[in-house]
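Suppose a classmate hands you a notebook page containing two proteins, each written out with its sequence and a corresponding row of structure tokens. How would you begin to make sense of it? This section walks through that situation. The first entry is reproduced here exactly as it would appear on such a page.
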Amino acid sequence: MDNNLTVCFCNYFEGNREDYLNLAVPLYEASITSDWEAAKLIFEKRPDLVRFGLPKNSGTALHVAAIADQNQWTKKNLDFVKNLVDMMTIDDLELKNKHSNTAFWIATAFGDMEMAMIMMEKNPNLLNIRGSAGLLPLSVSAFTGRHSTVRYLYNRSQKMSGDHWTESDMDFTLLHCVERDFFDVALQILSDCPELARNMAIAVMHRHQGIYNLLYEIGGSKNDICTFKDKSGNNMLHLVGKTSKEMAAKTSRASLLMQRELLWFKEVEKMMPPSLREAKNKDGQTPYELFSKENQDLVSKGLKWMKDCMVVATLIITVALAVAFTVPGGYNQEHGFPIFIHQLHS
């Protein structure tokens, strides 16, 4: 089916002013407020409008219902969606709006999980249809932080298998589950797809705290990440040291950055098997040797910053002491005794 039909049907209303005012606008208003009685009266006259694009390029009535204010969702909203879905064919549910999103995709990104379930029960293929930015519904729900929806969709995704799932899709979904602290789903993904564990080494390189926390939860899969090596023979600990220069550009205070980088290196080191902590890459460098080489400039800048701070601190202390020991009225130039203010006026 041509999923651009929604756009074509919008053109119909553009050329039919009377139908636009008497049918399209009222149906849009009924959909945004989940007023099924009002919508039903329109559909009784024109049942085909269930697949027509409505005003504001919003898509079908189902699209409009999916973007309604989720903070005010009630059983009324779900009943409206269910009635609409009952009227629609499987192909109707795959219609896209001007942003290339199905109503199901919108529901998984911003709407209610039960609403998404109603649509998917009728057309399970909705899970495989991409929307904005080429994202699959499961991926976008992880991106927008819909925990219950993510769990539901992952359980229905057959472990993110099928020709429509790429490694990039899987990595994106996993990383955003971690960013949102959906560790239950992330652990399940790593258990079902252990090959993704190696890609997490990249996240550790870039100081992704959520990934680091997850590593302590995944048990044996952690070894798959730790034993990862790039083409230069660098393991994960080498890579942490190698990327310090990149991180240096993001922080102005060298001493603080040096402290953070050293702490991160030591934390990752604790996670590594002892045999890998002293492993050498193809250049014959251990992780610590590489870390030291990569951070030479950072150490110099840190020492200079500390020296400058000490000079400033010394000046401040000198001035402060001078002020503290300055006697009001000054000193007698003949014998050096202080002249107190009250003596000046006596």
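The notebook's second entry, a different protein, reads as follows.
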Amino acid sequence: MCRTNCRFFSARLDRELDVVENVDSPGALTELVNSFLVPKNINILYWNCRGIARPSFSTHLPYLINTYKPNIVILSETRVSSPNSLTIMRRLPFDSWEILDPVGSTGGIIILWNVRVAAITLVNKGTQIINMVVQVLSTNFVFLLSAIYPSPKFRNHASLWNELTTLSQKLNTPWNCIGDFNKVTCTADKLGGRGIKLNRVNIFNSTMDSCNLIDIGSYGPKFTWTIRRCINTIFERLDRVWFNHLWLDNFLNSHNYPLTCLSSDHCPIILKTSNLTSARPKTFKVKSF
């Protein structure tokens, strides 16, 4: 921990010690310190950054982290394979990560977190998805996090939709599915350019329905992706968060906010949760495949 952070926590301790100085419990001070270090809620930042090796990335991601204080960061379309991505990750204020390498120069997902905030275990990963179990240490609450970046080739999407459907049938825990899905759900999700392909929209929507996943909408900009062409500009809502009922039953207030586009043509999304239910540690249940 840097000296600045040490002085910060020391100052907070000095201010609060008067409150607990008469408490006889030997764990009072430890509980107080942990209340500073472990947040009560979980904020997740998702960003299709379109390449972590670009010079602008090293400026814009720290800005997002410092501004929005995410506990978990998910980057997609990283375009950099290990071990080069490890060199970049070690410069960031996280001590743990999971990497899904791109296929050639396309795709790639990285999830970053700190072990003092969450205990995260890899379930599995494919070419388009990472599934991880997250235990929020401040509440002992457990959920499944699925980070998604579909292949740009439509013919590869069927395997991803089948994987999500199969997973949902064997799942009995809160589920958060976040990513750039490369799909809209209706005509209102697109402005400009050619009309949407209804057959692809219907396949996507039916997959989410069969998975019992719900899009609760977002606050802020309506569209998350923009491309400017000679004739007109195209806007689409491609990046979104889906939840199942168990998530919404327990995470009472979940809101996602598309942020201002930076060096990518995709807006970052910050997912904020509050009123997390404190509970005994739950066993993560996924029936065997």
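A careful reader of the second entry would note: The mean pLDDT is 84.
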